[in-house]
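Appendix B. One record, verbatim.
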Amino acid sequence: MTFDEFIKSVNDEEPSSQLSETLTSLWWDKKGDWDTAHSIAQDIPTVQGSAVHAYLHREEGVIWNADYWYSHAGRVRPDVPLEEEWQSLVEEMLSSRPNA
């Protein structure tokens, strides 16, 4: 799946079952459902899951919690707009998928 295909899929009712958990979380976030996105991300026990979880708390505006999750992901809070971070995360998750 390309980034453009991922963006187009946000118009669907539900995310593709082929998406990873991290991409599913980011899909729901783009769809405007932060609660579902967060519910998914908080249960992903990986570095990438922590990165998505951190982004969601940054978006929420709870910076201390975002920084906690960035540290779990081995990252520092980026100094870029949220939309740019979201796109970078989607591209990272798409490129790490087998057969992406």
